[in-house]
Amino acid sequence: MKTIDFYQEVSQLLRNHTSVRKYKQKDIPFETLKDLLSSAQHAASSNFVQAYSVIAVTDEAKQKEIGILSNNQPQINSAPILLLFCADMKRLEHACRKKKADIEQQTTENFIVSVIDTALFAQNFVIAAESSGYGICFIGGVRNNPEEISKIVGLPDKTFPLFGMTIGVPDEQHLVKPRLPVEAILHENQYDEKKYERIIGEYDQTISEYYQKRLTNNKNSDWSETMSTFLSEKRREHMKAFLIDRGFLLE
């Protein structure tokens, strides 16, 4: 019975996730942050490389600068801590150097591993943070100006900021945005795209109703229209040159 209750509690925590962009003026003890990160480190890691690092940006001047560069000033200025989650092969270079080995970090596979490791670690951190009463918001906007942001926090080669994250005590509430039905993402034995026309039509109606009823930023749109606008233009084309400059040649 306890196992069932625990599952239901964790399941409800996951289902209640919303992005929080406004926080109360309440500091997070650094020891608490370290404890949350320690829990997050138990995420799966390919071959145990643990190819990630986190920069906790607590300096207000740096927070404001990154807020401008990422076009996320209001929420970053509101949060007590801004975290930069970085894909990191630099520490592995040091480990290999200790054994007089050269690191082949420029391959596409190692790039993928570092991105996956960082994402799994970050999601574990989200669960730990939200279970402790904090709210978070991912900030992909750090990739708007990754080179400048890397300089602000002194990132070396073989590292890059994958995304940012604000964390704090929530000072706002949002309705949970409806996800795609499980039927849309689950395929048994082989991929089935024939079902998409029906499922997307139904999901568009669900999202349209959500957009009109949510507490802020109401709009008359649906999922297909939002995705069409988002995906019909090239975005952050500077990232390829930036990654090559950081040593990720994607061979």
Largest sheet: 4 strands, antiparallel
Described by the principal axes of the CA atoms, the overall outline is: globular
Q: What's the architecture of the largest domain, going by CATH? A: 3-Layer(aba) Sandwich
CATH topology of the largest domain: NADH Oxidase
Instruction: Find the CATH superfamily of the largest domain.
Output: NADH Oxidase
C-alpha termini separation: 51 Å
Uncertain runs with pLDDT below 50, 5 residues or more? none
Number of domains: 2
- The tally of helices reads 11
Helix content: 40-55%
What is the number of beta strands?
4
SSE run: HHEHHEHHEHEHHHH
> Beta-strand level of the residues, as a percent range?
5-15%
Q: Strands across the major sheet, in which order?
A: 1-2-4-3
Summed over residues and divided by their number, the pLDDT gives a mean of 95
CATH class of the largest domain: Alpha Beta
Radius of gyration: 20 Å
What structural class do helix, strand and pairing data support?
alpha+beta
